[in-house]
């Protein structure tokens, strides 16, 4: 009996040593760094997958440092009726399965963005392999074209764009980072709106430069004629693209969205306003408070901005060691921030898109009134006014008491 028990233990132990029945080896997969999504004229999707070539990265050829001239990625484009069907049909073009779990960024073509992102968002929330934390970027043309371009001097273009979005959001706050998860939340919010960064190729557009941007010739020049750049903000309502905001307008929206981390503010000295000579403040902390108010039958949003930073360059000829001069500069900074916020706000009201989420704040503050204005919020939004109050502080004016070129 004891021997039988011993055999049973051995059999149970052997069953425990069995491997994973559904394992997939790395050499059976193509890891995706970026994805491009376009809507074609016939209503079908064109999905492009930017797959990583490990051999090019390992050999160093992906950075243009010798060896065979092989980029670090390759792009497959698949046309299909649905987003998921495109992923399945990719198996007709490649010997390995395309793996999207490590996807860093989604490029959305302009026509696809105007048509609506609901099906793309549905795929990323429903598919167990796809991740909803991937960054979203809009393109002003075809995503399938942009995703093929090399982002000199980086090897991996998809990873480079993802890092660019992170750094911009941390240091400039012009275009807040938006993930698929954030986009899905916006579609189910009261405002049903959000802003997404726009990426474009900036530079000398001609056939020669366009072709070089897709091969290793891009690494042969000290400065690439075409550069992948974040240029503006695309605003969405109900998942569809409604318009664009420039850098200044987008920064104003960042203030109103409470998404200012760090940024830089250029402002004129009071005695040099007409000469267009500017000084710069590096904002190291910005606190924005939004307080909805009801005035008669309409609503006002009180915007309180408190920011602190250091003076990083100046053309001001006055002695900045004096308290009076510092206060004058702080007033100019406050004017500049107020103007920036108003620019972004005016553009949003012109488009009728509540990309700052004011509807959600009105709903929380005035739940009973919200039931009456909910159906007509787009018109109510255009009637809203801002009460902007900016408190700017220069913590560190620097070691020099005067502008280095001052004659005083």
Task: Give structural notes.
- The chain is of the alpha/beta class and 408 residues long.
- It folds into two domains: 24-245, no CATH class; 258-408, 2-Layer Sandwich (GMP Synthetase, Chain A, domain 3).
- It has helices spanning 2-16, 54-59, 83-89, 110-115, 118-126, 143-146, 157-171, 180-187, 207-212, 247-256, 323-351, 358-365, 367-373, 377-383; strands at 29-39, 45-52, 73-80, 97-99, 105-108, 135-139, 193-203, 226-237, 240-245, 263-268, 278-295, 298-313, 385-396.
- The strands form two sheets. Strands 1, 2, 3, 4, 5, 6, 7, 8 and 9 form a nine-stranded mixed sheet that branches. It has a four-stranded mixed sheet with strand order 10-11-12-13, with helices on both faces.
- The longest helix has 29 residues, at 323-351.
- The termini are far apart.
- From the N-terminal CA to the C-terminal CA, the straight-line distance is 105 Å
Radius of gyration: 27 Å
Task: Work out the strand percent.
Answer: 25-35%
Which class best fits the helix and strand makeup? Answer: alpha/beta
SS element count, helices: 14
Using the alpha-carbon principal axes, give the shape. globular
Count of individual beta strands: 13
The portion of residues assigned to helices is 25-40%
- Following the backbone from N to C, one meets helices and strands in this order, namely HEEHEHEEHHEHHHEHEEHEEEHHHHE
Average pLDDT, all residues:
87
Q: Kindly give the count of domains.
A: 2
């Amino acid at each position: 009996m004891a021997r039988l028990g011993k055999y049973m233990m051995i059999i149970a132990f052997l069953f425990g040593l069995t491997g994973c029945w559904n394992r997939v080896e790395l050499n059976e997969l193509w890891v995706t760094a970026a994805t491009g999504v376009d809507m074609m004229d016939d209503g079908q999707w064109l999905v492009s997958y930017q797959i990583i070539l490990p051999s090019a990265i390992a050999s160093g050829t992906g950075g243009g440092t010798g060896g065979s001239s092989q980029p670090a990625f390759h792009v497959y484009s698949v046309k299909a009726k649905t987003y998921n069907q495109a992923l399945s049909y990719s198996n007709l073009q490649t010997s390995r399965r395309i793996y999207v779990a490590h996807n860093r960024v989604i490029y959305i073509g302009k026509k696809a963005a105007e048509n609506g992102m609901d099906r793309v968002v549905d795929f990323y929330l429903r598919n167990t392999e796809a991740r909803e934390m991937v960054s979203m970027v809009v393109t002003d043309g075809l995503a399938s074209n942009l995703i093929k371009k090399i982002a000199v001097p980086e090897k991996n273009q998809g990873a480079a764009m993802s890092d660019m979005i992170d750094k911009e959001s941390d240091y400039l706050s012009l275009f807040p980072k938006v993930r698929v998860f954030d986009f899905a939340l916006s579609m189910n919010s009261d405002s049903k709106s959000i802003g997404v960064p726009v990426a474009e190729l900036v530079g000398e557009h001609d056939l020669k430069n366009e072709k070089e941007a897709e091969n290793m010739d891009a690494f042969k020049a000290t400065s690439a004629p075409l550069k992948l750049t974040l240029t503006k903000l695309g605003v969405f309502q109900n998942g569809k693209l409604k318009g664009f905001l420039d850098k200044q307008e987008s920064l104003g929206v960042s203030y109103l969205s409470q998404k200012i981390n760090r940024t830089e503010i250029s402002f004129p000295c009071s005695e040099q306003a007409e000469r267009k000579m500017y000084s710069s403040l590096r904002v190291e902390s910005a606190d924005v408070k939004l307080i909805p108010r009801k005035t008669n039958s309409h609503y006002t949003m009180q915007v309180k901005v408190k920011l602190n930073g250091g003076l990083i360059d100046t053309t001001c000829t006055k002695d900045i060691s004096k308290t009076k001069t510092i206060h004058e500069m702080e007033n100019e900074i406050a004017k500049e921030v107020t103007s920036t916020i108003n620019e972004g706000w005016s553009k949003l009201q012109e488009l009728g898109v509540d990309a700052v989420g004011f509807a959600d704040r009105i709903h929380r503050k005035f739940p009973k009134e919200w039931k009456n204005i909910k159906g007509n919020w787009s018109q109510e939004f255009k009637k809203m006014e801002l009460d902007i109050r900016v408190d700017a502080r220069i913590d560190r004016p620097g070691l020099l008491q005067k502008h280095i070129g001052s004659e005083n």
